[in-house]
Amino acid sequence: MPDAHESGYSKADLKKIDSVFSVLEDKAQAYLDKPDLARLSEAALFGQEAHKGQYRDTGAPYFTHPLEVTCLLADMRLDTESLITALLHDTVEDCGVSLHTLSEKFGDNVSQLVDGVTKLTRIELQSIDTKQAENFRKLVVAMGKDIRVLLVKLADRTHNMRTLSGISAHEKRERIATETMEIFAPLAERMGITQFQHELEDLSFDILQPEMRQSIMTRLEFLTSENKNTIPDIQRILADVIFKGGIECDVAGRLKTSYSIWRKMQTKNITMEQLSDVMAFRVIVDDDAACYIALGLIHQAFPMVMGRFKDYISTPKRNGYRSVHTGVLGPMNRKIEIQIRTPEMHDIAQRGVAAHWDYKARQTDALQPRQAEGFRWVRELISLLELNTGPQEFLEHTKMEMYADQVFCFTPRGDLIGLPKGATPIDFAYAVHSKIGDRCVGVFINEKRRQLATELENGDQVKIITDPAAKPRSEWEEFVVTGRAKSSIRRFIRVEKQIEFSRIGKALLEREYRFRKVTFAEQHIADSVIAFGISKPEELYALMADGSRHPRDVFERLHPEMATGRKPAVSGSLSKEQPLFSISGADEGMAVQLGKCCHPLPGDKIIGIITTGKGVTVHTKNCSILTKFVEIPELWLEVDWPRGEGRRYAGRIKAIILNEPGALAALCTVIGQQAGNITHIQLTERSLNFFTFQVDIDVKDIEHIHSIIAVLRSNKYIESVSRRSL
To answer: What number does CATH give the domain 649-723?
Structure first.
């Protein structure tokens, strides 16, 4: 690597950096052209300059770490942008280099990839709970929108685990190892990269259960020393069996990893001494047909262990892995595991999804059915926007789509909550606990106060503010997306409404009793409710409050001896004998006005109140002012909207807009485009970032104002908008 001016490192440190860079150059030269190698060298110089004077906990110059990570990716033959990203992946987080600078020097793709790796680096697992680990894995995938981000992160984690001993704090080493075992090793398995998976598992196992690992390693060393030639002898015997059948092959053998042995001991609930198949052999043959011929030859020569045969060639794993597995009682009467595959299958087994890119780049014709099957998982994981012919173009379009319909957010304690795309803090609150949702009054997202209707994004830290006196609000239903939040809000409002209606209905019936000069006896009502086809008095009271039953009719049903036998008066009469009133059939000259407190619109459920000197005032049935008339049922009238079109009514909305030029103009423009006429607008609240306006609009009906609200919510200047009454 060329000398860097004022590198901040000693000559010995520069020699270490040059040594690793030389290895990287050798690996990259095997498949990159000269222009790409020049870009790689430029990025290496930039990275070394950015990290000058920095050292790792191991004492090594810091820049050796990005170089080692890049070497791991070069082994996988990744594209130039991935290698440059690996070289620069810590420059934003640790060196203060801006994404804009990276974009100018190395292109937007590299800048975006580095940004993705940086975001993944900033999050960490706080809980070893299985559900939390699964959510964390999904978060990692969701944030790594380009698959190359995940590959760089896996390589970064692999090298960090190799040098974990440089961290002196035992608790920190355990936390990193737990996160690796729970998140990154399974992710490597999901992507089919066994070379990362097995190393990450074994290195984590060494930190988390050192005594158990040492015990297994000691046992393996004993078996090796006792039978030094066992593995080579079995390799030779297997190769002879297959060669005699006319199949060319290459046989390799090894002892299984300590972690895989421990996991099998846990699964089967046996000791190390009881575990017989600690050796695994791999047979490489030329093609698919030869795999099955070799399998038959092995089964002819050695008894198969029942239940150990698996055919991943005809039915590949989801990550594209293909091979035939079998277990036999092999030479020297030892149980052994054998994997039979082609060179291409073996490469994919080692390099996973990265190997697919190589094979795709080599293809000139359409995919054959068997080859296409190998891409099945890749199609699940990657959205191929178009079929490309070269690996560079292919990689530019490998965008992640798994979990694109979900967001994952942290609680202040670090627990991870998974929610549907478009979820808000209210959804988050109910996902934590129903009581948190019911008492929610505000939210901090990433330590900033935000609106409750704000859409959450991956990785957000959400802190819900609660108040013991708070209650769910009906307008929350307009923006929550989870079923749990919707049902909780509806249930609470339904119960509250039932309680309120029950209270109002009871007051109406008590008023009727006082009017009839009869003592109100709730026990008598409780004993008689079955006659009304209901089970408890509260339901009867609610029926009177919503107008389904009139207090006079209920009284006379309970006291038939006091029934007056009166008949309903003609619609439109204001006689006390007839409390029903229809706006559409009102007496000519009857004064009727809409309540300015609640601004009812056609489509709202309404009620009329007789107001002295004003005639009838129409309110929505949930208007808060109606509580003032609970004790005066004679003033309540049932009303209906007039038929016919053409008339317009005043509706009111509350709009919170950004404090930016053009925001108010956008609000007014949208209302006008939707055929709404602004009759009054008032600024009610202002802050550094938001303005709150109360806007009165002439509209046709409730659907019209809802349409205006829906369009406003899609505007980039509008933070939130809702219908208002008071």
So the answer is: 3.30.70.260
